[in-house]
Amino acid sequence: xxxxxxxxxxxxxxxxxAVVVMSDYFLVLPPVNDAGTSWTGSAVTSLQNWGIILTAFxxxxxxxxxxxxxxxHISRRxxxxxxxxxxxxxxxxxxxxxxxxxxxxxxQYSWLYNASYFALSATVYSSLGFYMTSGVYRALRVKNxxxxxxxxxGLLVLAKNAPALTVYFPVLRDxxxxxxxxxxxxxxxxxxxxGALGAIxxxxxxxxxxxxxxxxxxxxxxxxxxxx
Amino acid sequence: MSGQSIWDRLENIPREIxxxxxxxxxxxxxxxxxxxxxxxxxxxxxxxxxxEALPPGSVVMIDFGYSGGGEPELGPMAVAVYKHxxxxxxxxxxxxxxxxxxxxxxxxAMDEIRPExxxxxxxxxxxxxxxxxxxxxxxxAIGTDLRATTSTDYHGDSLxxxxxxxxxxxxxxxxxxICYTTGGDQSEGWVRQWVTVYGTDYMCxxxxxxxxxxxxxxxxxxxxxxxxxxxxxxxxxxxxxxARGIKSADVITLTxxxxxxxxxxxxxxxxxxxxxxx
Lengths: 228, 278
Description:
Chain A is 77% helix and 0% strand.
């Protein structure tokens, strides 16, 4: 495949679409229809709907990929793995058949979801509480000034998050409010602004073809590097 | 083992003992609720007041953006807020899901709420327009043109047959947006796609560990109130619908105190050991 098809064309498509979507965010470009919507408005609505359809499609594609991946484990009898893969595919088939033929809002599908996935998911998430308790007990130790500060702040936040304790010690609320409202928020804001600037620069690099990760594996020549 | 001092043992309590005591402390208040006091924090109060101030005819969008793992924390909050909305006159509640499990979890919430006990009718007072894939793309699309994005509710019935949807076409037709989520993509995405673009009033309830990441938005005035699902007991107290949240408040208090005790024991033991060695 030529470099034009593999690299130039996708970058041009990304650039044009990005410009249209961004211009709709900031500008009302003529011609404008009776409802006050510019031509970019309806174009962006269509693009967003394409995005939704593609995301939904990718979920189905993911399921197919899951089948291929785990079928290999089953056919090769991968030690300590193949029976988990088999069980996974059985569950996928059961959910899919019931979802497709009886509907994802049917009583049967809801029962299946509530009795299996929901219960397991909530259990796994809840069990983190035990690991975290053990982890906090072992990790939160005073070894130097920094860990001492960490310990004090950790204990204060823990105490504040115990609802009844703040009734008996209202001062906890003021202290933790200062920690979260001033210290944490200002640090968090810096992180967020940094992340946003990174996202903007990544967007510009992608639009201008300097970031080619989304194009898949390219040769050195296609990437614009030295030709060997 | 016999050569170990008491401080050695307290510094390295086996995890089985830590887990065992935690389990006991967890189970007791679940079986025998203690009724410990639950203070109302300002964020929960702001949330409650915002809903109280909604005039009849207001339209509220609720995103069920959490997964099954987060249901024990966020479910009670969603239920209490729905009950509050249903108790008010003439509020229309449109729900959608940015999480693939959202529709199932909405069904669970409805089983707990029992809308019929508030004379709320599906399609007239409340509706669920289903899971819309794409997270931020879905938010943007629904905001721009809801009907172009989805034409049916989550049962597959046409939206045009439900009176609640009359005149609702996009973000500008909603007076309030509420999001329950276990993911930052959703809680922050609504700020980017609805609050910034349309100026929609927005409140979100997230996992307790996510609250610090959302507070900058609240301080900037982009979110009216950020609460954690763990504060469901406070909401239930305000709305006067005691349920799972109040029960959890006892558990949260006792388990947090236990963790504090664990940490103090570990540190005292380590200090005493260090003192003995020197």
